[in-house]
Amino acid sequence: MGLRSSAIARAVPGFCIPVSILVSILVSIMASLRAAGPAQEPDPAAVIRAVDAAVTSRSENVLGFIDIEHYAVYRGGDDTHPAAEMTVRDTYKRGVGKEFTVLSQSGSAFLLHFGLKPLLDSDHTINQPGNVEKSWFNSANYMMTLKAGGVQKLDGRDCFLLDIKPKEEAPNLIIGTIWVDARDGTLVQIDGVASKNPSAFSGTTHMMRQYANIDGYSMAMHARAESDSAFFGRTVVAIDYSDYKLAVKNGKQ
Length: 253
Description:
single chain, alpha+beta, outer membrane lipoprotein receptor (LolB), chain A, 2 domains, eleven-stranded antiparallel β-sheet
């Protein structure tokens, strides 16, 4: 060690690395940082392929499920006291569809009969074989564009965001955004407006749905739909999903 290096070593307690080696390490680190450059944006095609693969995996491997769903309808500006409520058991079987069993209901008979019952009937129709495939969030049904910004956090999960627009218009298809898990392409959240109003009397419907990963598959946990029209006024339907029991291929219910 030269005189200068020895002086530094004596001046700094615990210093034992020769300056020449330290400088070499620093130069190597700086070179690595320059070579790495800025973080690259993900490949949009690869992200969309991951989304499609996750949808296909779910459709092929989830043979059925049972869950409990609680529906609450809010009117006007009151988002605290539901005007009508209904709790149902939802039983889904692949290749058959959904069946709903009403466990309890309360509140406005009008909203129960003309609001929630048609909603269950619509869900039943959408999930029938030949229809359910048209509602999947994949590139067959939607034009998808990856948003800039890379990975973003949502509920503690690393996500990519994609703008989506359905290739056909339907009340259950949305124009908006989906959040997908950056690791496997599974759905985390959707948010947007219905591409087609369900009737001439209803206003634009804004829809949001949040998902959780259950046994490796995206399952809805909370949903909210809000519409506002001159004829009906403001209406919000909130849905909470719980107590899932999945039947998966080569697995147990």
